[in-house]
Amino acid sequence: MIKKCLFPAAGYGTRFLPATKAMPKEMLPVLTKPLIQYGVEEAMEAGCDVMAIITGRGKRAITDHFDISYELEHQIQGSSKEEMLSEIRNILDKCTFTYTRQNEMKGLGDAIYKGNVLVGFANPFAVILADDLCYNSDGPGVLKQMVDLYSKYKCCIVATMEVPHDEVHKYGVIEGREIEDGVFMVDNMVEKPKTEDAPSNLAVIGRYILTPDIFDVIKETKPGKNGELQITDALCEQAKKGMVIAYKFKGKRFDCGSVDGFVEATNFFYQLERQ
Ligand code: UTP
User: Fold this and answer.
1) CA atoms in the 13 A half-sphere facing the CB of 23
2) What is the pTM of this model?
3) CATH code at position 99
4) 3-state SS class at 101
5) Ligand 1, atom nearest to 9 Cα
6) How far is the CA of 188 from the centre of ligand 1 (A)?
7) How many domains does the chain have?
8) Nearest residue CA, atom 4 of ligand 1?
9) Is the CB of 51 under 6 A from ligand 1?
10) For 5, which of 57, 86, 126, 255 could close a Cys bridge (C-beta 3.0–4.6 Å)?
11) Spatial CB neighbours of 162, under 8 Å, sequence gap ≥ 6
12) Would you say 209 and 176 are in contact if contact means Cβ atoms under 8 Å apart?
């Protein structure tokens, strides 16, 4: 049922300047694979075959990446390097890519809202923020875990993890009641709270399952923190009038939007490949 995955990728990636001056943050490679390709593979594993990407100015490399490169393919045809393109070829065989632009950076809520033309209003859809790189060695990926949970609860689901109390100001933070192991009924959500105002240390990371009624809620949501339309505020509203679940996922998450997280991910995947 969840076939479409939205990738908001219109941000400027200022923490990676100058690398992101002319190149999208989502194309930064962890080893030989760009961040967004990890996200697409996670979405495929979860059963999605339509990848809906919200782009902005200077993001053409993403569109080119998920396309055939005739010249290059011709050049390396028959050589040992051909194998290096097998994963991306498999993606192109199995998935459809759609794009729309967010002309102005008005926040993640606005970027997701812009996605309505791509994901439609008929079915729930997934959202992946490609700069949050997730990996689970002991079972299904994070999005697949959430899709499985959706079949039980049939409502919006956000992925969460415990973070140190002095880091809650970097995240949307939830207040909720645990209804089964690792599953919380959300009562409240706060975007980037001060440590003393945070309702918990359960932070929302970049994986969501959203039901299409979220678009009406976003439309009514006013700009919040930093003057941006925050998806946290829309989901808080949704939790109050309906139901939102927070899920403490199994696996690891690397904040590849920050230099520290990016280096950590690179080291982790390098060690993994060496094993
Ligand atoms: P971030 O705030 O982490 O990304 O947004 P950023 O703004 O690109 O990075 P910095 O802080 O300047 O380094 C989280 C995700 O939401 C998307 C971003 O592309 C990123 O994947 N986003 C955010 C949008 O698509 N549009 C927006 O208006 C805001």
Assistant:
1) 14
2) 0.96
3) 3.90.550.10
4) strand
5) 19
6) 23
7) 1
8) 11
9) no
10) 126
11) 201, 202, 203, 248
12) no
